[in-house]
Amino acid sequence: MSRRCPYLEEYYREKAGPLRTYHFDCHVDGLSHVRRRLSDSPPICVRNFEDCKLYQAEKHREDGLITRYTD
Ligand code: SF4
To answer: What's the pLDDT at 33?
Structure first.
């Protein structure tokens, strides 16, 4: 099963020699992030994204909106 944050927009990896470059655009902060590592180390967005502070904040905000609409 693929683990992928629902707020993750663009995501791709590049490999150049030992260097891994991960590009990920987050819908919550609206930023394009680049992460470079010398070993496989994908960002939290494709792993345990529930632990991400941005994810938690946005989920909380959406849940709040849904609660309001159903009141
Ligand atoms: S895991 Fe966090 S940083 Fe990554 S896309 Fe989701 S909210 Fe954004």
So the answer is: 97
